[in-house]
Amino acid sequence: MYVETPLHPERLTVWCALWAGGIIGPYFFKNDEGHNVTVNGDRYRAMITIFFIPELNNHDVQELWFQQDGATCHTARSTIDLLKDTFDDHLISRFGPVNWPPRSCDLTPLDYFCWAM
Q1: Whole-model pTM above 0.70?
Q2: What distance lies between CA 74 and its chain's CA centroid?
Q3: What is the pLDDT of residues 26-40, one digit of tens each?
Q4: What is the C-alpha R_g of the chain?
Q5: So which domain of life are we looking at (predicted)?
Q6: What are 9-31's pLDDT values in tens digits?
Q7: In three state form, how does the secondary structure of the chain look?
Q8: Which residues contact 39 (CB under 8 A, 6 or more apart)?
């Protein structure tokens, strides 16, 4: 019996925002042809400007802190600049005004609670 397996299996990258008012998203990272793609700085910034900020503006948000982990696409200089312009000092991120504490179980509930089940 011959079974062919792809060298690089299909991947799916999904982003969403969790806040007291609910969930914004999910956002699926896909290219123009609709194929799943990995996230880089350009794609992440496009998602923030084209999807997240307009969605956020649809809600009556008085005060918001934006928090993200230290992934390279999240912490590229142009990404941090965009987030600082958008959220001022209300940014918790590596290289942000409030530094992201790595491996902090109280700040990464998805890593330590949701996916650990």
Answers
A1: yes
A2: 7
A3: 999 998 898 899 999
A4: 16
A5: Eukaryota
A6: 778 889 999 888 888 999 999 98
A7: CCCCCCCCCCCCCEEEEEECCEEEEEEECECCCCCECCCCHHHHHHHHHHHHHHHHHCCCCCCCCEECCCCHHHHCHHHHHHHHHHHCCCEECCCCCECCCCCCCCCCHHHHHHCCC
A8: 13, 15, 29, 71, 73
